[in-house]
Structures are given as structure tokens and as C-alpha cells.
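Step 1: inspect the first sequence and its C-alpha cells.
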Amino acid sequence: MDIATDSFYAAQQKIYPRDVLGRYARLRTIAAWCLLGLFYCIPWFAWNSRQAVLFDLPARKFYVWGLVLWPQDFIFLTALLIIAALSLFFFTSLAGRL
């Protein structure tokens, strides 16, 4: 038995992804374009003669659509995010994949 020519492993077939077509793929593409456009355009929106979403780190102020948030206000944001995560877990376990 010649070790150089015989192999114990078969060559694997290549796997090629197929194109995904349909309503949800199109909806995902449209949503991605809209969200990326919003992400890149928000810094140029003006709100009360100021940038609409501005994180002023040296002054420790965060301006979000006219609302001024200070660093001590982020405990409320943390609580809101925790409530949102727990409600997501609760409703997913309650309803499953409806």
C-alpha cells in the first residue's frame, strides 16, 4: 500500500449558498437600507439649533432629540433596558414562535 497515493479521507464536496428570494428577504433588505440611511443621516438633523443626537463627552451631556441626559440619568435607561429584556424573555416563553 502506497501511502502517498492512498488516502483514508474522501474529498468533501463544496457547499455553495443559494440565493434567498421572497417577501421576507426583500423586507430585510429594505429595512437594512432604511436603518443604515437613518444611522448615517441622523448627525445632520438639527433640533433646537443643535444636533439631534449629540453625545457631548467632555461636558458629560447627552442630547437626544431635545432631551438632555446627564450621566446619573443612565440608571433609568438601564432599568428600561432590563425591563425590555425581561419582557422579551417572558413573552417569548409565553407565546413561543407565533
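Step 2: inspect the second sequence and its C-alpha cells, then contrast the two.
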Amino acid sequence: MSDPATPTPPSEWRAWAIAGALLALGVAVLVAVLTGMVGQSAAPRARGARDASGSSAPASEAGTPSIVTVATTPDVGTASAQQAASAAAAAKIVAAPLNAKQKRALASFVAQTSTQTHISESWMSGFYPIYAQAQSRFGVNWLLLASIHRQESAFSTAPSTYHGLNFAGCCGGPMQFNVTNGPVSTWQLVSNSYLYGTRPAAYDHQTAKHPSIYDDFDALMAAARLLTSDGASEALDGAAWGAAYDYYGHDEAGIAYADQVLARAIGWSQHGFCINCGVDPGLVAAVHAAYGAPVAEAAQREAAAQAVAARARRKR
């Protein structure tokens, strides 16, 4: 039985509808691969660009298969998410890619957290009201936020979540915010996001001073604002994938990260929020085919073009 504080999951009919849509998508992707259509579609434009006013230019999704659009709204009142998100909009932020040493350390961390024995419902219960506040105030799907929380710190159970910095010496807290990539760090850009929501009267890991990367409310609200500023909404679609890609950083590992984050969120939207469930490999493959593969192909084309240009310069 679900905890009454858990944000409202999708209804049963929606789960079946989503399952049908994903089945249709899988067939479409298979046909596209067999007929050579995949790779000929227009790739999404490189994310990370903003116009002079600081507003996001819409990412092109032309030719990109649609996976599913899900909006699960927790019962937290009638605050205008659009107004709050607009008022709190930050400049688009793309995390810096990790170096080789950091990637090896991250792979070790992921291996450890993926084999974690069990995360209890009592541990999670304090996060649900914060997820709901974040969705209500910033209009980002709480399942996407929770999936990133799972990916970054195994729902805050990873060692040193609430003290010090991570293996890379840059980031900390439940959502692993970067506090070193200044002069204005990622955390500094969104640290006041807690002001846009109503802090729960009691929750775990509340700090004495705010904002703090170690405070659950401060960190989750900041992450929601960051995702919204990078295009995420209540839909679990290409924009959500792009926001997750920005959250990690634009490289090959970032593509895999966004694939897993979005696939996990979609899986939860189908079957209900499951703390200790793994990610369905079929969903990861479908998400990658729809969103990750076009970005990877575009990056490969750009790298090849740069290599050709470099060779041409050397011959001059």
C-alpha cells in the first residue's frame, strides 16, 4: 500500500495506455532501424544555447520519435507552477563533463549503489512532500526529479551525501550540486530556489542555515528549478531527456545518464513509484533510440567535421 504522503501516481488506465504507446514505439523504432530511417531524421539542436535575454531557445525535436507524455500531479494546492517557474528562471546550465579519473570513480560509485540491498519506505517518506512542492512550484515532473535523486545519491543513502564533497571534489548533497565551478557555481545560480516553496514543518537533514546543499528541501527545490530552466516540465519527453543531459554534462556518459534517468521515471509512471526497482533495459533502449541516439550521432558528426578541419589546417 502506498504511503498517503506519496505524490499521487498515475491512474490504472493511464498505465495501460502508456504501455500500449511504448509497445507501438518499440515497433516503430525497429521498423525505422530496419528501413534505415533512424539516423536520417533531423537531430535535436545542441542544447546549452540561450538568447541574449536569458530565455531558452526551444530545442528542435523534428524527426525524433515521441515516447510518452505523462503529467502526474500531487495534491499540494493550486499554486501556479508556470508563474513560479518563470519568476525563478535561471540561465541554462550545462554541467562540465567529467575527466577520465572522475569517470572511473563514478563507475565505481554506480556499481556500489546499484547493488545496495534495500532502501526503506520510512527513509523515503520525508522526501515525498518535497518532491510535491518542487513539482507544484516549478512545474517539473516529480518522477524525473526523484529519478535524478536516485541516480545522483541513491536517494541520499550514498556515503558522504550529507558532509564533504564527492569523489571529484566538486559536488555534494542529495542532488550533488557543484560548488566549485565558479566564479559563480551551479549551486550559487539556483541556491535561493527554496524561497519559492513552502518548507515542510519537519523533515530529515534540515540544516540550521539556508541555503545549504546538504538540506533536503534546499537541494531538491534547487534541482527542480535547474531542470525547469533547462526545459523540463511535467511531460516525460525529449525536453525532460535534454534537461537530464544538461544536469550531468554533454558527453557520452551524459547521454547514458539521461537515458537511464528518463527510462526510470517513465517506468515509475507506468507501474507506480518503486524505491528499490531496477531500470527496465527495454525502456532504456527505447529512450536511447528516441532521444539519446540522435544526440550521439550529431556529436559524432561534429567530432568528425572538426577532425577534417584540423587536418586541413595542418596541410596549409
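Step 3: confirm your contrast with the notes below.
Confidence is low (pLDDT under 50) at residues 9-16, 29-90. The longest strand covers residues 171-172.
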